[in-house]
Amino acid sequence: MFSIVTEGLTRKFNAFTAVNHLSLEISEGEVFGLLGPNGAGKTTTLRMLACLISPTEGSATIAGYDIRSEPLKVRQSVGILTENPSLYERLTAYENMDFFAEAYGLTELWDRRNDKVATFSKGMKQKLAIVRATVHNPPILFLDEPTAGLDPESAKEIRDLMASLSQHEKRTILLCTHHLEDAEKLCNRVTIMSKGKTVIIGTPEELREETTGQPTIHIILRAINKKIIDAIERSGHAKTVTTNAADSSLAVTVDDAKTATPEIIRSIVHAEGSILSVNILRPSLEEAYLKLIREDPK
Q1: pLDDT of the residue at 84
Q2: Distance (Å, rounded) from C-alpha 275 to C-alpha 223?
Q3: According to the model, what pLDDT value does residue 293 have?
């Protein structure tokens, strides 16, 4: 079942097209990431889906409700965290929420329910803002840069909260971010946007594979000799074999790492090689993202 469906969703501001024919299908309980540089159209997409602005063209349904004809139903079905959440800092956390944060397991907020929000750290304010977005128990959450400007510890706490909302409460989360660590650790799938258009959609792993070319197996040995090199080449799985005498390592390119790795390891062992470590090299999501953005012809 799809929680979010968009078909040709477009938003123009006079002659400028902010979002250009965006089509997505996001499953119930999925964490889906909208990635892209500033100006890519991520926030505009969230604002259309939350019925804060109207699309110029195209359509979308949120929890089965049409964003054009049923905006009230859509708003009742979503919780939204904007990049700059508006909290009443002269009020207490309890007054801001008017509900028991303890029900969400957020004991830190509950313990500080009578403290003025102005005394909170930025990480605590983000927690409060996310919980506020869930106060009406929506099945779908739109989160715009939830870890922006946070220190590593606070960012991890926010990621843990998002993971809990998805895994334990089965909420669908549309995460708008340019923090690749958030996307890599949280998202089932992502789409990279550039200049309002979709560059690619897939899992983080699929995006890495899209930019890797041939997989490379990195093997560190106690020592390298010709007998080992010959055995790897005879295995029939190695495309190229590159040696590094400085650290007694091999870089072996292959067509399919899952199939080739055990066969290459077996050939090394049969050649009496002593293996210290084996790793399959792959780019980070950040490297894949940057490569795809640079190659985008749009």
Answers
A1: 61
A2: 9
A3: 80
Contact, 74 vs 51, CB < 8 A? yes
Phi and psi for 28 in degrees, rounded to 5? Answer: -60, 130
Sorted by where each begins, the domain ranges of the chain are 2-210, 216-281
Specify the pLDDT at position 37: 87
Q: How many helices (H) and strands (E) does the chain have?
A: 11, 14
Q: What are phi and psi of 240, to 5 degrees?
A: -140, 155
Q: Do domains 2-210 and 216-281 have the same CATH topology?
A: no
Q: How far apart are CA 220 and CA 54, in angstroms?
A: 57
Give the up-direction half-sphere exposure of residue 197: CA atoms within 13 A in the CB hemisphere: 8
Q: Which of 180, 201, 178 is nearest to 285 (CA)?
A: 180
Q: What pLDDT, on the 0 to 100 scale, is given for residue 229?
A: 95
Evaluate the CA torsion angle 131, 137, 138, 139 in order and state its sign: positive
User: Which class does domain 216-281 fall in?
Assistant: alpha beta
Please give the average pLDDT of every successive group of 10 residues along the chain, which has 298 residues. 94 96 95 92 94 96 97 92 65 56 49 78 82 84 89 88 89 90 91 91 83 82 95 94 94 90 96 95 78 70
Place of tokens 């892209």: 36
The contacts found for 95-99 with CB under 8 angstroms, 24 or more apart, are: 96/128, 96/132, 97/128, 97/131, 97/132, 97/135, 98/135, 99/135
Q: Classify domain 2-210 by CATH number.
A: 3.40.50.300
Q: Contact at 8 Å (CB) between 252 and 232?
A: yes
pTM for the whole structure = 0.74
